[in-house]
Design a protein that fits this description.
Length: about 80
Amino acid sequence: MGTENLITEGFSLMLLGMGTVFVFLTLLVVVTTGMSSVVQKYLPEPVPTTPKGTSRASQQDQQTLLAVISAAIHAHRSNKK
């Protein structure tokens, strides 16, 4: 085999490989886009609910939690001295 024949065969093999990869990646993009549109159509994102204002009980719980945390920090710092 001559050098020209090897180079020609190498280029043809390279083009075949690159063409295969290009076709596969193009097909992958098309299928992924199609799947995305199907999922969006049949399973739309749920509408987020707006949180209601904090109730009086939860405000009381927050104040109690703050007091407990403050007491724990104070006790921890006083034990270190």
